[in-house]
């Protein structure tokens, strides 16, 4: 049979050869080609979508390894943060307390990480959220470590100067064998008859009784002061100062260096006072604190306990 395609003609009962025009052949070829190309693209898309290439598979494995390493790094940073927080707690609650240093506020330890998001550029990049989080945590840890390092420098300095500090902190009684007649805290003012805070203690003693500096320091003021009468103020350093009021006579002058136990004046009845006595204050950061808490150097534990109990009961006052 000759090559070509034929069709049966029922009228003539013969086979007739099918002759296609060139245009029809081209259209038919393009149709088949389009079908094959479409099927090819579908298979290629499916292959690329469900079956990654060797390069993609390698990158996926690399990302998986990086995520695992980040998880390990995250756990290590968690442990470092625990250690840093423990160091900060010890620093504030133990080391700085021992050396009479103020605790470092948490705002200072964490300063510099609020406000503008400096990691926004990283967070906006694909797959960089973990990197941004890690960068932020490392920066915070670096800041905390820097603050802690400065704090330890301060503690080291205080430790080396502990002997000097102990000489300066008020730690003895300003009068010998004096009677405590008014303690620290709220009490009825003997003149104004109103309840006021008594910022020191009153020690009754005869006029002319010797008054001693309770710690090494520099005379900050030695003059008549309203209410306090003839008054001496000693700055001891380390944020401590002491006040001695109602003196009969001042025996020191402003700017003079004194040692613990040096004679600085005589008990009197000057200023707002109703009897011969010494008004004595201890101030830390210029805030009055109970002087009884700084009597440890020349009292036994029992004497200190007795004096502490006596200070709670004493309510007589001369100023």
Task: Please supply descriptive tags for the structure shown above.
single chain; 319 residues; alpha+beta; Glucose Permease (Domain IIA); 10-stranded antiparallel beta sheet; 7 helices; 42% helix
Shape: rod-shaped
Give the count of helical stretches: 7
Helix content: 40-55%
Q: What is the CATH-assigned architecture of the largest domain? A: Distorted Sandwich
Largest beta-sheet characterization: 10 strands, antiparallel
- Give the helices and strands as they follow along the chain: EEHHHHHHEEEEEEEEEEEEH
Please characterize this protein's 3D structure:
The strands form three sheets. Strands 3, 6, 7, 8, 9, 10, 11, 12, 13 and 14 form a ten-stranded antiparallel β-sheet that branches. A two-stranded antiparallel sheet has the order 1-2. The chain has seven helices and 14 strands. The mean pLDDT is 80. It is α+β, with helices and mostly antiparallel strands and 319 residues long. Helices cover 42% and strands 23% of the residues.
């Amino acid at each position: 049979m000759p090559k070509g395609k034929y069709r049966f003609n029922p009228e003539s009962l013969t086979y007739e050869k099918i002759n296609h025009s060139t245009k029809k052949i081209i259209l038919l070829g393009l149709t088949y080609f389009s079908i094959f190309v479409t099927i090819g693209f579908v298979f290629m898309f499916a292959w690329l979508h469900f079956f990654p290439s060797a390069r993609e598979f390698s990158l996926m494995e690399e990302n998986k390894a990086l995520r695992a390493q980040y998880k390990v790094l995250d756990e290590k940073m968690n442990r470092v943060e625990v250690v840093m927080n423990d160091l900060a707690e010890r620093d504030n609650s133990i080391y700085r307390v021992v050396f009479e240093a103020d605790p470092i506020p948490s705002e200072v330890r964490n300063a510099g990480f609020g406000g503008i998001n400096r990691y926004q550029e990283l967070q906006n990049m694909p797959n960089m959220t973990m990197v941004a989080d890690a960068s932020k945590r490392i920066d915070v840890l670096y800041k905390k470590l820097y603050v802690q390092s400065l704090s330890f420098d301060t503690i080291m300095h205080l430790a080396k100067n502990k002997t000097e500090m102990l000489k300066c902190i008020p730690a003895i009684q300003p009068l010998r064998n004096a009677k405590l007649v008014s303690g620290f805290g709220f009490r009825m003012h003997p003149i104004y008859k109103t309840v006021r805070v008594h910022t020191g203690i009153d020690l009754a003693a005869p006029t002319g009784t010797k008054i001693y500096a309770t710690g090494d320091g520099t005379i900050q003021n030695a003059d008549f002061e309203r209410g306090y009468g003839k008054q001496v103020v000693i700055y001891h350093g380390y944020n401590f100062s002491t006040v001695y009021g109602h003196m009969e006579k001042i025996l020191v002058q402003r700017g003079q260096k004194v040692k613990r136990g040096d004679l600085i004046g005589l008990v009197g009845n000057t200023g707002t006072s109703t009897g011969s006595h010494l008004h004595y204050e201890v101030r830390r950061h210029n805030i009055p604190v109970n002087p009884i808490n700084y009597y440890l150097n020349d009292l036994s534990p029992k004497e200190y306990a007795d004096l502490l109990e006596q200070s709670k009961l004493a309510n007589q006052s001369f100023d």
